[in-house]
Amino acid sequence: MNYELLLANRVYSGWGLRVWMIFEHFDIRFEHRIVPLYTDEFSQYKRDHFPARQLPALVVTSDDRQQVIWDSLSIIEFLHENHPSADIWPSNSNARAAARSICCEMHSGYKALRSKMPVNLKQHYKSFEPDAETRADIERLQSLWAWARNEFSSQGPYLFGKQFTAADAFFAPVAARFRTYSINLNEHDQAYCDLLLSHKSAIEYVNLAKTEPWVLDHNEFNID
Ligand SMILES: N[C@@H](CCC(=O)N[C@@H](CS)C(=O)NCC(=O)O)C(=O)O
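Above: inputs. Below: predicted complex with glutathione.
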């Protein structure tokens, strides 16, 4: 099987960061291409790969067929099924179920966090003040992390123990948001965010993001 990962502009794409970290951390061979959002290339991508509509998307080519898999969660599940020895999800089934629960919550919720604190890997705002809804999202996330650590990760440093899993990849974009918007965290959460953002694959993604030329005004804020 041959994998081509199609990514939106990295600078604004936490969804892409998740998948990138999984490929890199678990050493799965892939090629990649940036499809800049809201350009002719993006329209062409949607025509070529209907019904895929958003990015990231994974184009999987095997001897007899080509298939596009879109949505970061379904891409990660596909990789988990096709690379079972990689332990992309925690190997213990209770921990795996818990990891999926918190990732699915992350995947489908946190509307305030997403809209008020969009991923922006080039910026570092020092005087951002979260509103009440965003603050509630942040507090809920912190309570989930504390719960996972307490229940499943006595040995740390990752959410489900000593090994990096899909759960950590899912929360790397949150860590990036906390850094961009200078959110004050307790010692444990700060250490966890630092750990995620110092992962080799995250550093590489952020460095590549910083070289990108595109600017999307609706993801840029006029604050310090
Ligand atoms: N649930 C999707 C969300 C993906 C998403 O929102 N992608 C953004 C780029 S980071 C996108 O494609 N936006 C363009 C659009 O919605 O038209 C996933 O996990 O992959």
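Residues 8, 12-13, 15, 37, 54-56, 71-73 surround glutathione (CB under 6 Å).
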